[in-house]
Structures are given as C-alpha cells and as structure tokens.
Design brief:
The chain is an alpha/beta fold. It is about 40% helix and about 10% strand. The strands form five sheets. A three-stranded parallel β-sheet has the order 1-2-3. A three-stranded antiparallel β-sheet has the order 4-5-8. The chain is elongated, with a radius of gyration of 30 Å. The chain starts with a strand and ends in a 15-residue tail after the last helix.
Length: about 425
RNA sequence: GGUCCCAUCGUCUAGAGGCCUAGGACACCACCCUCUCAAGGUGGCGACACGGGUUCGAAUCCCGUUGGGACUGCCA
C-alpha cells in the first residue's frame, strides 16, 4: 500500500485537500508497511514559495497526521525529460508548433473535441522550439474507479495533450505519471476534478510501461451553499484550513467532520476517534455525490470534542485564548463550541466590565442588599448562592430574577457563567 | 458546444429488490432539568427530483426527462 498526496502550495491549505490527505492517511496507516508520500507540486517559483510549502506541512501536522516520504516536482525535471524523450523515440509523442490562437482559429462549432485537431501529428517537426504532444491511440480507455465504478472514454474525444513545453519543462500530467510509476504508487485518492484526466493518465502510464495501474478513487467535490465546488475566490476563508485552527477548532473534530463528508463509519455512528476511523475506513464505502461543507455541524462536532476533553486538556487547549483556573474551566467547557469564544465568557474575571444592557427592575435594592450580605456571608459557592437567595426573598424575588442584577453588575452581560463563580473573585 | 460525473429530510448521511410506516446526526421547535446561559434528558417537524419500464414486490435494477456539477491550458 503506497499512496501519495499532491498539494499545490498556493498560499493556503484547502479543506478539500485536508479531506484528501485524511483519506490517503487512513489507507497508509491501515496495514503495516503502508506509505504516505507527500508529493509537492512546486514548479512555479513565483506562486509556490518556500513559506507556502511550510504552510502545507504545518496544516497536515496540525490535523494530527504525518507522512513517510516527501519530494518536490521541481527537483525531478531530468526524470521527466528522459521520459519525454523516450515517448518521442517510441513514436508515442510528436512535436507541435501550433499556438493557442492557431488552434482556436481552426476550431469548428460542431467539433467533438473542444481542443486540438492533431494538426502536427504527422509533420515530423523537430524538438527545437516546439511542444511535445502525446499521440492518443485509437480505441477506448476504461477507468476503473472505486467510487464511480467503470467509466469509459472514447479516445476520439481525448485530444493529443501536451506533455512537455517548448522550453523542455514537463507538464503536470507527465510529471505525475512518471512519479507515480517510479514511486510504485498503488492507490490514487484525489478530487473528482481529476477524473477526466485519468484517461490521459492511463494512456501515458501504458506508453511508459508502468505495469499494473494504481487503484483510483475520485472523491466527490465539497460544495458551498450554492452547490458549487468551494473556492477561495468565491467563498473566502471558508475554504482555508488555517482559519479553523485560528478560531479554535480542535484538529480531532475537524478530522472527524471532514471524514464524514462522503463517508460513513456505519451503524449510525458519527463521532468516531481517529484511530478507529483508520480501522473502519474502506474505499468501497465512499459516497459519490457532492457534499455541502456545513460549518454549523462542524461547530457542533467541535463542541462535543471540547466537552470530551479532560479539564487539564481543556485548560491547555485554551492557552492561546485565555488562562483558566481549574475552578472555572469546567464551567466554561460546557459553554463553548469554539475556543475563541472562551475570552468572552471569562473576561470579567480579569478586568472591570462596562454595563451596556438596561438594568432590570429592583436592581438598586438587590445590589444594595447583596453588597451588605456579601460582607458577612461565607465566600464560597453555597454562601454566595444563599446570600443572593435571601436578599431576593426580602425583595419578593425568586433566585432566577434575583441574580440578574448581580450578574449584570459583575459580568456586564445578562447571561454567562453561573453567578456563584463570583465566589472565585478575591 | 463536446466529454464525463451526480441526484434520500434544509444539511451530512444509512439504505446492495421484500427487514422501510425510509433509520441516525446537525439545524429548527416544544417540554423536562435549572440561579442566567449552556450542557444533559424526552419528544416533534422533516426526504426517496420527475416519467416510463423490469419484477409478485423498487429508494434500491434499466431507459428517458429535468436539475446540479466537473473537465475541456505550452496551470498545478
């Protein structure tokens, strides 16, 4: 079992990518000897800077996942050039001088393929200054996919695709196939958008004598509320994994939620620990329809995971947002869904608050009464509660109403932590 | 335009011809618990896109329609 994940370091790590690594990681960790390779597509120096590559590593690590080997597409140019030369030598590829404009100009409205018309196929052009195109053979190409089943492509509908630029550099498809053969990849799990490219991939694979094809699984896309593949342009930071780290989502909750987008552990179960998901995961159980990324459900999952934490774990997790004592932490824990909500609950413990909401009736009486009562009452949970209750009774109020003005005065908000936590104040 | 993919509650899903009066989860609503807010508990609302077949029987198989999506670069 050798699987690989190929992110393109474009400045942020996509939640769709996160799901892909997760599934690849499940596969690699299922059996001993499994290998997950991080294949970094970094050929564009402008866009794929070193900091972006680091960002990918950080994101995967944050998720709690790891990988066994790593390499970069940019460092393997020679391999690709050799493969390209071989393809040309074997007659499986030919050089082409056509520009995009020329191709478009020749295109007719009813053409079966929206692309290239094989104009240079038999012109015997030399390598110099020309791009190398793959000579697509006649026939059909069958893709066996774990989630789509058998998908058949008529080769007449596949254009002679470019595999090497005029400057000698390889295109993604060539690099990809060469690498997968060389790395002896056995499973390719990636987004549905790659499904149409799988036919060319197989054609190249065969031409290069790759042997047994990998097992394919094309994951359905993750969509937004308009049912379109989520994208940074349209959906902003909704797609950016780092945003969820910053907002205080737990990686465990994120993994769990992501795993459920297109897969189910069965038996009506949803909250399942990572190591158990590894055991349960099967490519055959993947669902083929697109899934909406529902932040509300993610939040709910996150709340569950937060509540499942031990007090010490919770305090540690809150570190970047607030310092919690062991006394307040449990009270806070059941009241937040994301860690960034923590400060809003405990800010009054550290600094004086400002009251912006209108005071309830009887506030003056309650406040005065309690100020006096607090002087003498035992300064603990029960003491405070009894004191407020007593003063409330004197004013004809039940505890529910009686505590309101006190809460407002102390916390600055009409709701929040139990009023008795004020006993923790010095 | 061409090729390909997809279609169960609002959302994520279970469902491999009878176990389906279609199950679970999130969201929503109600009630209980309760010092507010949560958490927790109980209950409720709510779906097989449509039309034809096949079959004793279809959410499940086939065909068509409609709707959605992806791909269609000398990007990765």
């Amino acid at each position: 079992m050798r699987t690989r994940f190929s992110p393109s370091p474009t400045g942020y790590f996509h939640v769709g990518g996160a799901r892909s690594v997760l599934y690849n990681w499940f596969l690699a960790r299922q059996a001993p000897g499994g290998v997950l390779i991080l294949r970094i597509e970094d050929t564009d120096r402008e866009r794929h800077g070193e900091e972006h590559v680091d960002g990918i590593r950080r994101a995967i690590t944050w998720l709690g996942l790891d990988w066994d080997e790593e390499y970069r597409q940019s460092e393997r140019a020679e391999l690709y050039a050799t493969a390209a030369a071989r393809l040309f030598g074997d007659g499986n590829a030919y050089y082409c001088s056509c520009t995009r404009e020329e191709i478009d100009a020749r295109k007719k409205p009813g053409d079966p393929q929206g692309g290239y018309d094989r104009f240079c196929r038999d012109r015997g052009l030399p390598p110099e200054g020309n791009a190398l195109r793959f000579r697509v053979p006649p026939g059909k190409t069958v893709v066996e996919d774990k989630v789509r089943g058998v998908v058949e492509f008529d080769n007449d509908n596949i254009q002679d695709f470019v595999i090497q630029r005029a400057d000698g550099s390889a295109l993604f498809i060539l690099a990809n196939v060469v690498d997968d053969i060389e790395m002896r990849i056995t499973h390719v799990v990636r987004g549905e958008e790659h499904l149409p490219n799988t036919a060319p991939y197989e054609l190249l694979w065969a031409a290069l004598g790759g042997g047994t094809l990998p097992v394919f699984a094309h994951l359905s896309v993750i969509v937004d509320d308009k049912r379109r593949k989520i994208s940074k342009r349209r959906d902003g930071d909704l797609v950016v994994l780092e945003r969820y780290a910053l907002e205080g989502y737990l990686p465990s909750a994120m993994c769990n939620y992501l795993a459920l987008l297109g897969w189910s552990p069965g038996e009506n179960r949803e909250i399942v620990p990572l190591d158990e998901m590894v055991q349960l995961f099967r490519l055959d159980d993947l669902n083929s329809s697109s899934a909406f990324f529902d932040v509300k459900k993610l939040r709910a999952f996150n709340g569950e995971y937060i509540r499942a934490l031990s007090v010490d774990e919770f305090i540690a997790a809150c570190e970047p947002w607030a310092n919690l004592s062991r006394e307040v932490a449990p009270e806070v824990q059941t009241r937040v869904e994301v860690l960034s909500d923590v400060p809003g609950l405990v800010d009054w413990l550290a600094a004086p608050v400002e009251v912006t909401t209108p005071w309830p009736d009887n506030s003056a009486a309650m406040l005065e009464g309690c100020t006096a009562a607090f002087e003498t009452c035992p300064w603990d949970h029960d003491g405070v509660k009894d004191a407020i209750e007593a003063v409330g009774q004197a004013n004809g109020l039940k505890l529910g109403k009686a505590q309101a003005p006190i809460r407002l005065a102390v916390m600055g908000k009409p709701q929040g932590l139990p009023i008795t936590t004020i006993a923790l104040l010095p």
